[in-house]
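Why does residue order matter? Because the sequence determines the fold. Keep that principle in mind as you read this record.
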Amino acid sequence: MYTDDSEKRHSRHWIKQMFPNFDADGLSEHDLLWNHKLEESFPHFRARARNVLDNVFAPKNLNASVKCK
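Structure:
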């Protein structure tokens, strides 16, 4: 999450044109979460990444598998 415009997602219309099989019905037309004044600090990024990894590798998930198409 950075203040650079390249981090802002494309419009819903653009996504539907580029990826017609992607279900974009839940997306707003424009990125409502991106804020050009708000930049995530590195410690916040690390904490967020750690939370994801802790959830992926939690004991209850160790027998789960991930499938890629």
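The mean pLDDT is 82.
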